[in-house]
Each structure stands twice: as structure tokens, then as C-alpha cells.
Amino acid sequence: ILILQTFPAISTLPWYTLLFPLSCLLIIRGLRDLIDDIGRHRSDRDINSRPCEILAGRRFCWQEWRDICVGDIVRLRKDSVVPADLLLLCSSEPSSLCYVETADIDGETNLKFRQALLVTHQELGSEESMAAFDGRVTCEEPNSRMHTFTGTLRWRGHTHALDGDRILLRGCRVRNTALCYGLVLYAGEWFDSKIMRNSGKIKRKKTKLDHLMDRLVIVIFLLLLVTSLGLAVASGFWARTFQEKHSYLAALYQHTSPAQQAFLNFWGFTILLSIIIPMSMYITLEFIYLVNSCFINWDLGMYYGAKDIPAEARSTSLSDQLGQIQYIFSDKTGTLTQNIMSFKKCCVNGTIYGPGTGHENKQAPGSGLSREHRGEQRSDVCDVTLLEAAQRDNDPVLREFLRLLALCHTVMVEHRDDQLVYQAASPDEEALVLAARSLGYVFLARTQDTITIRELGRTRTYEVLAMLDFNSDRKRMSVLVRDPQGTIRLYTKGADTVILERLRGRGPEETLTERALDRFAEETLRTLCVASREVSEAEFRAWSRRHREAAVLLRDRAQELDRLYEEMEQNLQLLGATAIEDKLQDGVPETIQLLKLGNIKVWVLTGDKQETAMNIGYACRLLTDDMEILEEKEVSEILQAYWESNNNLSGSGDAPCSRHLSQQRPETLCHKRAIIVSGDFLDKMLHTGEVLKEKGWPWRWLCCDRAEASQDQGGLVEKAFMDLATSCQAVICCRVTPKQKALMVQLVKKHKKAVTLAIGDGANDVNMIKTADIGVGISGLEGLQAVQCSDYALAQFSFLQRLLLVHGRWNYLRICKFLRYFFYKTFAGLLAQVWFAFHSGFTAQPLYEGWFLALYNIFYTAYPVLSVGLLEQDVSAKKSLEFPELYVVGQQDELFNYRVFGVTLLHGVGTSLISFYITLWAFEDHVGTKAVGDYESFSVTVALSALLSVLVEIVLDTQYWTVLSFLMVTASLLFFCLFSFLTQSVDAYRIAPAIFRFPDASWNALTDPYVLLVVLLSLVVNTLPSLTVHAIRAIMGRATTQQKIHLEAKRDPEPPVELRSHVPRGSFRRRSSYAFSHQQGYAGLITRGDSLRARAT
């Protein structure tokens, strides 16, 4: 359009009319991008300038990360961040072990170990030997596979295989290792390291309003073209008609025909009306988004003082979508719960100890054992009965129970400032070891073949004969030890389902323990069973010989070792059970209740087991007693009925689905249901349909060809499951993978077109967070990856209620009002040029002065609309939380949609018609020596009438007034008066008559009482319909508010959180609450001698 404006035969607007506002917008955008680029440059510079030690010649020199090249040898010290992907050559630890923390990569705070090749460990012990190192590494191309690596090291004529256990990835942090040395494999600015390969491209998320605005801009452009075409055609007819009637027009058109004139006028009108295309809207919106994001960052209601963590809006363009959320997908551990494990209860020989016995608040005499390591890591063991029983040391079962807790683990110990600090592979293990220490059984040190503990003040060293490692299939781990008296014992801990079936017999104590396990599960505690047995010397020798043989097998080694472990872990004596608490975060039940009242459905997607997830669901009020719980069997039957009833979930009459639901629980028919399924079930059902085939699903597509059948099958099953799941009040998916979490979010977006929010705190939640429309990261204990990939970061799940119900609803209201009034002011002020064309021979002559057109959207009307987008509130934050039902407005897109845009367009057209034709009517008969009836005065009068009508309309509809709001409205009028008198002054006209074409027009018009009365008349006529509508809305709104208050008063009081049995109907199996997060491989690490150096003294 700017290019077209350079042709005098086409354009009737001054050159600055479009160039000036466009230049202002581009300058603002450029400054914002410059600030962002400077920030990114500083961030890159800070990272690239980090110091590191690189081998140069025969010594290590301090250089910067930017200087690292492939093939360099780097020395890292304790707590250093790994600057590139390295092959570990050696370290200061035994067997060149290196401990690393991968929180910034996979979100796990537990330490992991890496180990150098034996040959490099033995040969590269000095700087001289490293300088002479001439090995050649052949490895795979750079890729994003974080947990796999394939390569070889060829050195001194031998080839050594390399895998992921030898690699230190960029972003890891070296822990508990004084020095380590690595050969750089992947580095550089071309994203060769694995962490950079995983960073991927940043995909900009767009809100529903973004998509709507993009379509509306296209609609406005089409309206512009249609209007320009209509006016151009009219100009052709006008030229032909009036050329014949009026001879003085013949000279004007002697070089062009009416058709050619219409063609030129089409482009002239396109230029003239192009100002209605909202160029400045996007820049203004970005500023509104930015400020509203700052409001979120500054909100003390979402500030977590305990850890000094404020809320953070990491994305500045999604704030309005926070007011339209329909589904929340939440992780469990660390998101709903605190992810701080504490030993809460236990059952020893059938006796339950822990809070609830009535003794937990008393202080036991001589209870110094529970405080002997003041200042160290602590356990919450506070049951005085258990402490006294442990001190008496007269119960052999309790003694063995506590001894097991101190012996059967893979915890590493470190002496730091004369204190014991435990480094555990899982928070559960750390909680158990700390509990044993609090009760007098203190783990002191371990070596390759010994473990030393202090038992009630007596130091004892046990010989470790074998460690039977944990894995997810075995669900248990064991340690085989010889005590100082020479007795060999096996200590085992694991899931109740695997321990109980390996007992030598069942007696009253076992029955009581099973009941205790049920009770612990109902209280949402994480449980483990512990057992032991004595092993004879002959049995151990025979088993040990076969174990050594299996350990060196080249084929089926893991299967053979598992078989030997299974053989040893038999005929156990049950000692008891432990119960570890992972507490709910503060305010989680209340938050979920508010979200449910706001018509937001919460789905829990967790990798934890079903029983634990289900009880957490009851604890946080996601599940209630009056809900029908549909598990995998019921879901399969309902989906089959869904098919038989021709895709009718609700069912009517004799529909199979209806019959099935009524049989399940008639009193809750189609009202309150919840689904609880596992990841395996989802995988089979959604990808293969095996679950439904097993149930006799009558696949209609079996007659189709295979490719078509597979596609149809997937779509139909997905839709069926989504129809069922979204009809339920709650959904819990347990044992799901990160990929399955993202899949569930994607299915809801695909089939329900709903706005989704995902919230989590770990690396396993990243995929889900990226897939959802809004991603929220919890700043927890599982690293920063979830936060780094999120759109918003919170410290607590409970802050979600304020983020959505307050900020989300306000931001949606503000953006919608801003859009409505931005389009209204554009149409109301600028469409008068269309009506003027009917009275100027359709010649594309502008009605307004060029400076008015240039400044209209930047100074005259921008500030009142901006104040609405920044400060508007319909109700206070307190009322927003008190009446969460108000949130439904955003979910239903009520405040801005195609209908609202159409009404706004008509409103703007009406305002422009009234402003133009009242002024035209008044000026037609205004003649005389002192009358103001010229074109310039007419233009100023129409402009002022339209401007005041727009400002009054905004003032009437503003519900929340601040000093800044008042100043912005006042500033608009002041800017209009100031720039009008400056650009229309006689002095300006004398300097540049081609640019300042309206000398003294504003002064002549605005000092005439007649003109002021015309402006007042236009304002009154424009305002009366709006006043009437506002009065009706106020009356109806007051009634609606009274209804909502009445509804609030009638709400049933929320039941207190009560932890008790919630076994679904038809389910008589004993529920398990086993939960144990542990990394496989630590047992082998310890038995190889790759442990901490410290020994007991």
C-alpha cells in the first residue's frame, strides 16, 4: 500500500499518513526485539565465557567454554558443570568413578555414576600421560538420544567398546568427585551436544483469540476490498452520468474513460480505507500481554515465601488463554504432593507404630538417640512407643527390622564437617536409612565388601557377600551379609505383592501386617515389606559358586542372575512393613474444588501405581464417595456397549450403554463417574485395540483393507474413549509414560477442541507441558527442566486457582474488551470516509486531514483502549475466588467471537453514520458571514464527534477506575487538542503548505458555539442507545449476581478430607500401596568396589 501511495494518479492521502504510524510501530517492535536480542546475547556470553581447564601441551590452562574443541582433554572439579559431551578418561575416585547430578537434563536430583574404561583409568594417571594420549574415538553422528551412546576407542592396538556409562553429558554437574578428566566428543555452536539436540525449535503457542484475530483481519481486508470495489464501480457510473450532464467535467475525464477512472479509484479507495486494517493492534496487544505478565510476576498471592519463589510468566503471549482452560492435566508426585519423603509409620511383627497411637506428642525419657546427629539430615520418626521399644532391645524381630533398614540399601555416605551426609539413589531409601538412624541404628560407612553400622551405640561391621539388585520387574532388592558372629543372613525389602508370596508360612503376624498394609494404603502412604532369613554356610557356598559363574556369562546373563536371585529369596520370614509419606501440598483439595466449581476438569496422569494414585485422588477431593469408579474392565464393557448403541454414550431406552451404567450404580446414572486406567491399558486400547478385541469388540472395519482398517480403528477407538472420559468428572491414568501423558493431552485437543493446561515438576512432564495449550512448571525438587519448558512457573499447585480464576479471567476480560473497543473505535472514526465518498463524486477524496488519520490510532484513541486492556476488572480478586462459576464465561467464548465482532462492526458503522450525517445535516443550512460551513470545519466537526463518542462509550463500559485510567482518557483529549492546533496552525501552513493543509480549521470550528452544539447532539444520539443497553445490563446483572450469591449459600459444605478405604464395587482384591523409586545398577557399583572411600573408624 505504501508503494501504491507513491503514485499521484492513485493516492489522495499525504505520504506521511501511513508511513508515520507504520514507522512508529516498526520502531517499537525493533526496540523490543533489540532488548530481547541483547538479553539473549548476554545469556550466551555468560555461558560461553565460563571458565574451564583445557590441556595445552603438558599442563592444564584456564580457558573459556567458547575455546573448547572436539578432541580436547578437559579437567573438571567438584561441583563443576560439564561444558561438552565428554568421554570420561579417569577420576580421583576409586576405579575412576564419577558421580554426576543430571537435574538440568532429566529432572532427577538423585546422583548417578559414570565410570572410565579400565585401561584409561590405569594408564592416564598424570598430565604427562594425558599429553601423550593418542587414542582414536569412533562414535555415532550427533543425535538427541540422551540415554544411549555407541562408539569405540582404539588405543595401542586394542579396540574398547564405549557406551553411555562412559559419557558425561553437557549440563551435568560433577558431585562428590574431587577431579575428573574427559575427552571432548561433541561440542561447538552447531548443536552437536545431546542436550542441545534435544532443545529443538521453539514453537510459538497461539491462543484461541490469536487464531480468531488472524481470521478477522482477513475478513476486514476482504471487506475493504469489497467496499473499495463497490465505490470504484459507483465512481465509474457517476463519472459517466455527470460527464454527460455537466460540461465542465469533460476536461477532467478527457484522458481517461469511466472504466479507467473506476480502476484508478479502486486503488485510491484501497489506500484511503487501509487505515481500518488494525496494524497497531498487534503491537499494543504485545504491550498488554507484557504488562499483564508482570502483574502475575508481582502477585504476592502467588509468592512462596518459604523458598523465596515468586510466580513467573515465562511466556508473555498466552495470558488471555488462562481464562479459557477446560481441562487440567496434572502430575502427582511433586505437583499434588510435596515430593519430600518422610518415614511415617511401620508395622513390626503385627504391631503398628507411628502417628495415631496417641503417644507421638510425648517426649520419651532418654530419647537422645533420636537427636544424636543434630544438624544432620533428619527423619520425622516421633512415635515414643517405637523409640522406647528400640532402646529396650528386647524384641528380636524389631532388632532385625531396624538392622535391615540400616543394611539393605545402596546409600552412599560422606563425612562433611564431622557430620554424616547420605547420598541415596531414591528419596525412599534415604527416608528409611534416616529413620533407622533416628531409632539408634546408624549407617556409618561402606566399602566394596563391608558395611558398618552403629547399633544402639555399638559399632558392628558386616561382610557384604552379595547384593541382589533392584529392578522394576523384581520390585525388590536384597543384601546377603555375614554378621560379626559369622551368621549369614539375607535381608530383603520390596513390594508387598512379591514379598508376601515368598514367605515360608502365614501366621497371625502376617495377617495383621496385611491389614496394616491396607490401612497404610488408605492413608496414601508408600509401603514396602521387609523380610529376612538365615542362610546356611553350605547353601551359600553352592549358591555363590553358581552366582560367580552366571556373572561372567556372555549370553542370557541377566536372566540367569534373576533366576538365582529368585532361588535365594524364598522361605522368608516377614519382619514388618514400612510406610513413607509423600504429603499433599498445602491447599490442593481446596484448589481442586474451586477448579471443579469453575467447570474445569482435572485429570491426574502419573507414573505411580493405581492404588496410591487412587487414594491421592480421594485425599485431594478429585474423587468423592458418590462417584462411580470405572476401572479397566468397566471401561472395556462400556466402550463395547458404546459401539453396540451406535455411538450413544448417554444411552436411552434399551441402549446397552444405558443398561450397563444403570446396572453399575442406578442412583448415579450419568451424573458422577470417574475413570481409573493404566498406561498399559491405554497403549493396548488406543494403538492396537487388543483390550477391546479380547472383550469381543465387533470390529466393523475387519472387512476393509489393512491400511484403511488400522486408520479407522484408531480414530474410532480414540473418539469412543474420549467421549467416555470427557463425560466423567475425573480421570486418573496411572503407570503412564511421558509419551502417554502427551498423548492424552493431544487426544483431548483433537477430539474435544478444548483448551488444555498441563502442570508438572519433573522431566517426565516436559512432553505433556509442551503439548498442552498452557504449560505450567512447578519449581520443585526434580530439577528445572519442567520449569524451563513451561509457559508459567509456580511454586505450589494451590497457586493455580489464583492464576486461572483471577489473573486468567481478568486477562481474558481485558483482551476481549480491548479487541472490541479497538475495532469499534476504528470503524466509528474511519468509516465516515465511506459516507463522504457518496457526497464527493466517489473520487477517493479523504474526509479527514492527513495528520488526524496518522495520529488517530497512535495518540487520540490508543490510551483509553490500552487502559481497558491493562487495568479492567469486573469483580475483585476475592470475589473471583468466591464465585468460581464466573470462569465459565471464558470457556464459552462469550466475550469475543464472530457475533460480538459483528455487533461491534454494526455499532461502529452506526456511530460513524450518526457522526457524519448529523454534521452534514447541520452544515447544509449553516450560511452567513460568520457561519462555519467549509470543508475543513466539517472535517474537524465529524472527527471530534466520532472521537468523543468513542471515548464516552469506553468510559461508560469501564468497570474499574484508577487514577491511571482517568489520566489516559484525559490524555487522549489533550493530545487531540494539542496536535490539532499544532498541525493546523497558520505558522505550520506557511512552513509546509503541502503537509499542513488545514490552517486554523480547529480554531475556527471549535470556537463556534454552533459547531459545539452539533458535536453535543451527535454525542447524545450516539450515547443514548448505549446508555439504554447498559441500564438493562445493570438490572439483569444485579439479578444474576443475586442468583449466584443465593447459589453460593445453597452450596453443600465441603466434607473434610478423610483418609479411609475406597475400594470400588466388585473389587475384593487386597490393595497394594507399594511405591519405590530406585535406579537399577547401584548394587553392581558397590560390589565392584566403586564406592566412597570412607571407612568406619
Outline:
Strand 30, helix 24 and strand 31 form a beta-alpha-beta unit.
Written description of the protein model:
It is a single chain. The chain has 1097 residues and is an alpha+beta fold. It folds into five domains: 49-199, Calcium-transporting ATPase, cytoplasmic transduction domain A (Distorted Sandwich), CATH 2.70.150.10; 208-277, no CATH class; 312-335 and 589-801, HAD superfamily/HAD-like (Rossmann fold), CATH 3.40.50; 337-583 and 1076-1087, 3-Layer(aba) Sandwich (Calcium-transporting ATPase, cytoplasmic domain N); 802-1060, no CATH class. Helices cover 46% and strands 17% of the residues. The protein is built from 38 helices and 32 strands. A hairpin with a 3-residue loop joins β19 (441-446) and β20. Mean pLDDT is 81; it is low at 359-375, 650-670, 688-711, 1045-1071 and 1090-1097.
Give the topology, please.
Elements: H1 16-48, E1 51-56, E2 59-64, E3 73-77, E4 85-91, E5 97-101, H2 103-106, E6 111-115, H3 118-123, H4 127-131, E7 136-139, E8 151-155, E9 158-162, E10 167-168, E11 173-175, E12 179-186, H5 194-199, H6 208-245, H7 258-273, H8 279-298, E13 312-313, E14 327-330, E15 337-348, E16 351-353, H9 384-392, H10 396-407, E17 412-416, E18 419-423, H11 427-438, E19 441-446, E20 450-455, E21 458-468, E22 476-482, E23 488-494, H12 496-499, H13 508-522, E24 525-535, H14 537-551, H15 557-568, E25 573-584, H16 588-597, E26 601-605, H17 610-619, E27 628-630, H18 632-644, H19 656-664, E28 673-678, H20 679-688, H21 690-694, H22 706-726, E29 730-734, H23 738-752, E30 756-760, H24 766-771, E31 774-778, H25 785-788, E32 792-794, H26 800-830, H27 832-837, H28 850-860, H29 862-871, H30 877-882, H31 888-891, H32 898-924, H33 935-957, H34 963-983, H35 986-991, H36 1001-1006, H37 1009-1050, H38 1082-1087
Parallel strand pairs: 14-26, 14-30, 26-29, 27-28, 28-29, 30-31, 31-32
Antiparallel strand pairs: 1-2, 1-3, 3-12, 4-10, 4-12, 5-6, 5-11, 7-8, 8-9, 13-32, 15-16, 15-25, 17-18, 19-20, 20-21, 21-22, 22-23, 23-24, 24-25
Helix pairs in contact: 1-28, 6-7, 8-26, 8-29, 10-11, 14-15, 18-19, 18-22, 20-22, 22-23, 26-29, 26-32, 26-33, 28-34, 29-34, 32-33, 32-37, 33-37
Family: Belongs to the cation transport ATPase (P-type) (TC 3.A.3) family. Type IV subfamily.
Protein name: Phospholipid-transporting ATPase
Subcellular location: Cytoplasmic vesicle, Secretory vesicle, Acrosome membrane; Endoplasmic reticulum membrane; Membrane
